[in-house]
Amino acid sequence: MTDISSILQGGYQHPVSRAWQSKRQLTKSMLMYPIFISDDPDAEEVMTTLPGQRRWGVNKLENFIGPLVKKGLASVILFGVPMKVQKDPRGTLADDPEGPVILAVKKLRELFPSLFIACDVCLCEYTSHGHCGILHDDGTINTPPSVARIAEVAVNYAKAGAHCVAPSDMMDGRIKAIKQGLIDAGLGNKCTLMSYSAKFASSLYGPFRDAVLSAPSFGDRKCYQLPPTAKGLARRAIQRDTAEGADIIMVKPALPYLDIISDAAQVAADHPIACYQVSGEFAMVHAGARAGVYDLRTMAFETVESMIRAGATIILTYFTPDFLDWLDQ
Ligand SMILES: [Zn+2]
């Protein structure tokens, strides 16, 4: 005789009762779509390393984003891609009023009033050396001017109309500086601060760096991004950023760091938890599907649902347009 408590299958024998086994289900409003904005206003450039993704010019945003908003797209995060401009050591053009990010924020606000618009904030796309901060002569990070510059850029994105600024630079103390900057500019109650709190020095950023042309010209980012093994540091970074005024905590990358997402959900239990399914993760899911390892859609759902299971409530993913279709089917 089987013991009564041994029988679990009765609870998930139907697709509906299987869905009930998740604490939270993926919804369209959880998705934030990363978009690359070129400084060529008419750009529509295919990127071979990120299947289906393009660098978009400001003039192309209406036709690109319009159909997605109709399908239920709730939020985007913008990354500027300066293709033509002169870069310098302090990333002067990061907040150029005529630069791609600020022009795109204004355009999207005007075109799609309900869309939540976040801006990634970093200097690496705009610095001549490709690092995320301002450097000493010996090539190491000079923290105070880096933090001041990052905060200045964030405030200028908020002034342009961004609903959210999201610093990805990993400089110590930048959350506090940005929050204070927003408050001083009268925007403390008008702009959400999403911190890339636990951002690891990962091998999975390759396609992104090709997309935004931000590979460092020397060295690497291991002195500011977290070591992949650093669970304790990640927890400390999350605690620090909540204390410094972050409204949302992010973990990046996502799939190899599900334990960190779970830690974030516990350490910052009263904050929304975001995770970024980064370019290399997206490319891996596609590559595996192309190689016949699994079905693309099934695997895309499995990856994102595992992030939600771990504790994420916001998912940054290049699969967003696909999910908007898949969730309707
Ligand atoms: Zn950067």
TrEMBL record:
| KW Metal-binding (keyword) present | yes
Q: Which Pfam families does this entry report, sorted A to Z?
A: ALAD
Q: Spell out the GO cellular component terms annotated for this protein, sorted alphabetically and separated by semicolons.
A: cytosol
Please list the reactions this protein catalyses.
2 5-aminolevulinate = porphobilinogen + 2 H2O + H(+)
Where along the chain is Zn(2+) bound?
122, 124, 132
* InterPro entries named among the record's database cross-references: ALAD (IPR001731), ALAD_AS (IPR030656), Aldolase_TIM (IPR013785)
Q: Where does 5-aminolevulinate 1 bind?
A: 209, 221
What pathway is this protein a component of?
Answer: Porphyrin-containing compound metabolism; protoporphyrin-IX biosynthesis; coproporphyrinogen-III from 5-aminolevulinate: step 1/4
Report any one BP term from Gene Ontology.
protoporphyrinogen IX biosynthetic process
Q: How does it assemble?
A: Homooctamer.
According to its UniProt record, which protein family does this protein belong to?
A: Belongs to the ALAD family.
Q: What is this protein called?
A: Delta-aminolevulinic acid dehydratase
Q: Which organism is it from?
A: Fistulina hepatica ATCC 64428
